[in-house]
Amino acid sequence: MTAQVLVLYFAQSVELTGLKEEELPDVPTPISSRDLWTLLLRRHPRLAALQHHVILAVRQQYVAVGDQVVTLADGDEVAVVPPLSGG
Amino acid sequence: MTAQVLVLYFAQSVELTGLKEEELPDVPTPISSRDLWTLLLRRHPRLAALQHHVILAVRQQYVAVGDQVVTLADGDEVAVVPPLSGG
Amino acid sequence: MSEEPRDVFKLSRDRLSVQEVVDAVSSASCGAISVFIGTTREDQVEGRKVIGLEYEAYELMAQSEFTKLCDDIRARWPTVTHICIHHRLGWVKVGEASVAMAISSPHRGDGQQAVQHGISQLKAKLPIWKKEVYDTQEASWKENGE
Amino acid sequence: MSEEPRDVFKLSRDRLSVQEVVDAVSSASCGAISVFIGTTREDQVEGRKVIGLEYEAYELMAQSEFTKLCDDIRARWPTVTHICIHHRLGWVKVGEASVAMAISSPHRGDGQQAVQHGISQLKAKLPIWKKEVYDTQEASWKENGE
């Protein structure tokens, strides 16, 4: 199975990808968050600068990059979340 | 020796004495703060309602009612300080 | 580049302006402003309803005790930059602010602790009194730390 | 007589109004409003001078994380009445406020602790980012808890 998801980039990841968002039409699902990150990394090799510092958000819930498996549906939001610095 | 002091009343002591301030022309000095309080109590017996709850201020410095001896000069301010409730 | 520390104290019969208290401590060298505002709470006391508070102060002495309070805060939290307290006098009806305290500091931990300590000390040391006034026309003098 | 608790969150490119944040939590049942204001500090980083911060947020998610933050505060301090956070986005120059948080509570201890915890959680959990901008035109993304 695959899903069409909307990937949102924030902060440093906007500068590294040159994008604020993009549609990804064929993301395999279910998928581990680590594989999801690897897929983004393949599209945008400069995201490697965030390796070990980044987490993801899937449908607006944080997901650490690791073994956790997420199920994606068409239209889901996936966000790249560099280290937070609000306040 | 005696001194002429200005006695200031605040909060409940205004209601008990009916006064906001008064001049006392012949206060003995040096005098213990307990004797100073007793002297005020003799002038205004209703101040007994504050007994054990009151402290004094002499030249704008707090003085507990007790053995401490204060030296008064003409024009000095003595204040009757009921329990504080600022804030 | 370091600023002269400011200690600002005001007793006033006018409504308190939080903005004014915050502006009094603002500083380009500070990342944190910690503020406390004390307001008159709607309260029932023995079946009577509190409609407001009546405040009075020994004004000159309050100013000198405020200076001591600031010295004490600066001794405990040396990074504190500016300190401001505005306290109302006279009639303060339910829902309105009676006191506002603001402290600026480079980082937030010190300022927040300093405000907590400052408000406790204000209640314990500043010669200010309040009388609770009830809807029955009765009134009673309050005591902090009861 | 007890009020419905209010949780108020606003992200905005306009200057923050402390008065608006305080008014959002005011309540006749509360005697205490605890406030924290975070401002942009004038700073030197490796010989460059910070002239301001540029903020961005994942806005919808920030709103839902704010709701979780409020639930967490109310679980820890059940007496907390109202909670308000305003956070700026976009350009915030040195000396201006980037965040203001206010909490009302019947008594002051709970509200002061809740604000401290709330600001820590905001920095740890809300999807908001800032970039420090220097007088050399350079900039660098910040990380909380560095």
TrEMBL record, chains A, B:
Keyword Nucleotide-binding included in the entry's annotation: yes
Q: What is the lineage of its organism?
A: Eukaryota, Metazoa, Chordata, Craniata, Vertebrata
* Sample GO molecular function, one term: nucleotide binding
Report the protein name in the record. Molybdopterin synthase sulfur carrier subunit-like
Question: Which pathway does UniProt place it in?
Answer: Cofactor biosynthesis; molybdopterin biosynthesis
Give the UniProt entry's GO cellular component terms: molybdopterin adenylyltransferase complex
Query: Which positions make up the signal peptide?
Result: none
Asked whether the keyword Nucleotide-binding is assigned, the reply is yes
InterPro entries to which the protein is assigned, alphabetical: Beta-grasp_dom_sf (IPR012675), MOCS2A (IPR044672), Mopterin_synth/thiamin_S_b (IPR016155), ThiS/MoaD-like (IPR003749)
Task: Supply the alphabetized keyword list.
Answer: Molybdenum cofactor biosynthesis, Nucleotide-binding
Q: Which GO terms describe its biological process?
A: Mo-molybdopterin cofactor biosynthetic process
